[in-house]
Amino acid sequence: MQVRLDGVVKRFKAVEAMAGVTLTITEGEFFTLLGPSGCGKTTTLRVIAGFYDPDVGGVFFGDVPMNGIPPADRGIGIVFQNYALWPHMTVFDNIAYGLRIKKVPAANIRPQVAAVLKQVGLEGLQDRTPGQLSGGQQQRVAVARALVLNPRVLLLDEPLSNLDAKVRARLRSEIRRLQQDLHITTIYVTHDQEEALVLSDRIAVMDNGRVLQIGTPVDLYERPATLFVADFIGTNNLIPGTIAEIGEGMASLTTRAGVLRGVVVGSLERGARAVAAIRPENLVLDDSAAGADVVLRGRVVIAQYLGSLVRYEVEAGEGVSLQVDVSDPKRHRRFTPGQEVAVRFHAASAQVFAAGAIA
Amino acid sequence: MTPPAVAAAQPVVLRRLRVPGMVWALPIYLFLLVFIVFPLYRLFADAVTTADGVFTLDHLIDFANDPFYRSALVNSLIVSGGTVVGCIVIGFTAAFLLVRYDFPGRETFSYLTMLPIIMPPLVGIMGLVFVLGRAGTINVILMDYFGLQKPINFIYGWHGVLLAMTMHYFPLITLNLVDGLSKLDASLEEAAEAMGARGLRKIRDIVMPLVTPGFVSGATLVFILAFADFATPLVVGLQNLVASQAYLNIVQYVDQRLFKMGVVIGALMAMMAIVFLLIAQRIVGLREYAVLSYRSVERKPLRGVSRFLAPAFFVVVLVVAFLPYLGVTLAAFGKAWSLTPFPTRFTLSHLDTVLHLTPLYVINTLRWSALAALFILVVGVPLGWILARSNLPGKGAMDAIVTLVLALPGTAIGIAYIRAFHFPILGFVLSRLWVIMPLVLAVRRMPYTVRATFASMLAMHKSMEESAASVGASGLRIFKDITAPQIWRGVLAGMLFSLMFVMQEAAATILIFLPGWETMTIGIFTYYTSGTIGQAAALGLVLILLCAATLYAAYRLTGARMGGLFGSGGG
Fold first, then answer.
1. In the listed set A173, A196, A229, which residue is the last one of a domain according to the structure?
2. In B88-246, at which residue ranges do the beta strands (DSSP E only) sit?
3. What is the mean predicted confidence (pLDDT) over B400-423?
4. Which of A10, A345, B33, B377 has the smallest CB count inside 10 Å?
């Protein structure tokens, strides 16, 4: 089922939680709404679910307008952040409830519940109450309950945020596998960019009620469209400065760390204030800098050995601190705090944005 | 590297005297034993022994074989059950509207709904008689202006008792449910909506089961209070109820057999209160879920007809609930009010009588209340602290006693005190000393303060005290600097509630007072039964104003939520 939002505005008193959101989520896609708290992602999910009606604009499932249609008639399944399992019902009753409301014959309920329980790997726990389950198990019951009515769209609102790291990683893969098996259009809300990158076919990054960029994980990581996205997705070294020279999609930037070059994103002109963004893994320390066309001087402040990589903090100019990740430490020369180093990178791996508020 | 400092600190810690908690708590244990456990023991023991102290079941068998008492028991159960049903219908509707919807006057109604509680039951039924009685305002209007031949019987009999009790007790249900409903997480209901459960189906399947604890707590309390109320039925002419019989049998003092039967009924009422309480706690225990609310349900504005139906509901309920206030006020200022809808002339003489000429009742009530408040402060607050923070032996028993006292009928406590303290203990016959009045009042109403203290302590995380202890503050110092500043509001609010119910108390005190000790409620009863209506009403009005002032102070202190104080289960 294709889901489309067309210029949706949703206000709560003075606050504009959605300030004109337009999205198209294609059939069978795993689509994530990503952003910091208060960015409007949950509101967007709830507008799709039908708990809120848009003040302006429309929601469409396929070509059918959904405005004014109650959640139960939209063919959605929803998993809430706190699971919202009914504590006074057993696992079985929680899942069967929707079937009973839909007046499914009693004889058909049992096999259907059993089938979804099998899908989420909870066979045998159907007579427990939610209070007797672990957090991870509760989460799976919530997913099973959302799936039992064979929804056209599955909505998940930060479903993993209340779990510890290990369980979270395991359930993350399970959700993705389930989604691919069922080939169900899935809309996922999270503030965790790593979760979004791992799970999604496409991601919409939101801030202040607006969609800043929609793209695949690779798009967002490698070609962020705004400074906010560059900062929010992954780690980036952000170095402010002034445009010294600009032309053919590249710009030179005068900063406290020296003169940098990078790819221009958006429109910029000479003398404008700008910010260069360079990923830690694109920076190279000293010797092995073949082909690098930008060189900065700096001093190592901290060196952290993380096994698969060494993470350096390098002070390059007054107030400019760079994170440098050198992977495969065995093959590289190691530096210790206090050492003077050269920091090199390819101009093509750096991006230059117009200066603006980051968060 | 300063080892000397560490070494110096060590002996300081060791030198601090360690008195076991049990020693500190000893007076509390003793108080509970002497003034609650012992009287109850005497009450139950008396019910199953002869005058010579021999065990017998004869009294119980007498009770069971007497068709009059059997029917009284059935009647009492019907009255209490009916009151609970009435209170649930009105109380749930009110709570659901107040929590879930927005409509004109919602805030005002939510305040006003509390108010019937401040009406002492005795004053309430009296005020109702002034307005709805045979010669009350409504009947006089109907007969004078609408040609009605005979007065309509609005209140004499079953329906009157049910009306008066429902209107008086429904706020207890509302308070408990407002509390429960506002704690429900919105997503629990949204999950049901997403599956197509709407309206009443959603309320039945999801909302009702989840507010069951608050529901059962409130309903149990209403049941027990209605079961124990003897004054309301007597005023409207119903005598064959258990509570009324207990009262009548005890106060006649002449017929030993009847007196003994009064004791037996008192013991039975206490027993039944305990049984109801246990059943309620079992239900609440099974149904209590730790549901954390992430997001409360948004209030929906009502539109169309219902926008006016909701306020109309409250107006009707509150008008009926406030009729007694009208009646009492009119009677308090009316001069020779009879056979007219409203008094034709007004006077201050009734107020002058009760405040100036015979101030005994008011003075006694203030005196006993102040002393009772002192007892409650000294015993109830530490008790709340012990329940919340300590691991003293017998903590569970203390908790049970506090909850039990909340449920015990005043009549039963009064009878128990008569039986327990009517002989010398250490040379004193307590029942002949005036101090028994504030004592029985304190014991009966202490649970509100204990619960408020307990709740305030729980709301404050223990780590706050522990971090003070970690920098070396002593126990008392921690209490003064950390604990007290954070809990005093809650504790004081609880004490004001205790105080309000102390002033309203009629059941226990009316059984144990000696001439000269009369409280305002006893004064009202005396005036009313002797036909001096004006004075009874004036005294009632003063009592209402005192209670209102107390409740207002408590309300200001706590903000709003006080549902937990009235529950009989949990906590």
1. A229
2. 101-102
3. 89
4. B33
DSSP-assigned beta bridge partners for residue A275: A240, A353
Same domain, A264 and A217: no
A72 Cβ under 8 Å from any chain B Cβ? yes
Is the per-residue pLDDT at B85 higher than 60? yes
CATH of the domain at B444: 1.10.3720.10
The two tokens of residue A355 are 């200066």
Residue A273 resides in a domain: yes
Q: How far apart are the first and last CA of chain A?
A: 34
Average pLDDT, chain A: 91
Assess whether A253 and A225 both reside in one domain: no
Contacts of B514 (CB under 8 A, 6+ apart): B432, B434
The torsion defined by the Cα of B273, B275, B276 and B281, in degrees rounded to 10, comes to 120
The residue range of the domain holding B101 is: 26-566
The answer to the question of residue A359 being in a domain is: no
Residue A269 lies in a domain: yes
Closest CA to B329 of B111, B496, B119, B152: B119
Residue B522 lies in a domain: yes
Label residue B385 exposed, middle or buried (CB < 10 Å: 0-12, 13-18, 19+). Answer: buried
* Co-location of A264 and A177 in the same domain: no
- Structural domain contains residue B502: yes
> B379 touching A, CB under 8 A?
no
A102 within a domain of the structure (yes/no): yes
Tell whether A151 lies on the interface with B, counting CB pairs under 8 A: no
Q: The domain spanning residue A104 has which CATH number?
A: 3.40.50.300
Cβ of A72 within 8 Å of Cβ of B190? The answer is no
- Nearest CB to A87; choose among B187, B291, B294: B291
Q: Which of B187, B198, B289 sits opposite A84 (nearest CB)?
A: B187
Residue A22: count of CB within 10 angstroms of its CB: 12
The interface pTM score, or ipTM, of the predicted complex is 0.81
Same domain flag for A145 and A265: no
Q: Which carries the bigger pLDDT value, residue B330 or residue B337?
A: B330
**Residue numbers of B between 216 and 235 with CB closer than 8 Å to A:** none
Say if CB B121 and CB B229 are below 8 A apart: yes
Instruction: Give the alpha-carbon dihedral of A59, A61, A66, A71, to 10 degrees.
Output: -110
pLDDT at B568: 37
Q: Indicate the average pLDDT of chain B.
A: 85
pLDDT digits over B280-319, tens only? 888 887 777 765 566 778 888 888 888 889 999 999 999 9
Amino acid present at A295: V
Q: What predicted TM-score, i.e. pTM, was given to this entire model?
A: 0.79
B290 touches chain A (CB under 8 A): yes
Residue B197 at interface with chain A, using a CB cutoff of 8 Å:
yes
**Is the domain of A222 the same as that of A241?**
no
- My answer on whether A113 and A53 are in the same domain is yes
In a domain? residue B335: yes
Token pair recorded at residue A82: 């706190």
The answer to whether residue A319 neighbours chain B at the CB level (below 8 Å) is no
Residue A132 tokens read as: 């007797």
Cβ-Cβ contacts under 8 Å, B209 against chain A: 86, 88
Under 8 Å between Cβ of B193 and B138:
no
Neighbour-count burial for B119-158, b at 16+ CB within 10 Å, e otherwise: bbbbbbbbbbbbbbbeebbebbebbeeeeeeebeebbbee
Count up the domains in chain A and report the number: 2
For B194, the closest of A72, A86, A88 (CB atoms) is A72
* Domains identified in chain B, total number: 1
Question: Which domain range does residue A193 map to?
Answer: 3-229
What is the predicted pLDDT for the residue at B287? 73
Domain boundary (A207, A229, A251) is at A229
Of B193, B206, B291, the CB nearest to A71: B193
Please say if the pLDDT value at position A291 is more than 70.
Answer: no
Secondary structure (DSSP) of A113-153: HHHHHHHTT-TT-TTS-GGGS-HHHHHHHHHHHHHTT--SE
A residues 83-142 closer than 8 Å to B (CB): 84, 86-88, 97-98, 101-102, 131
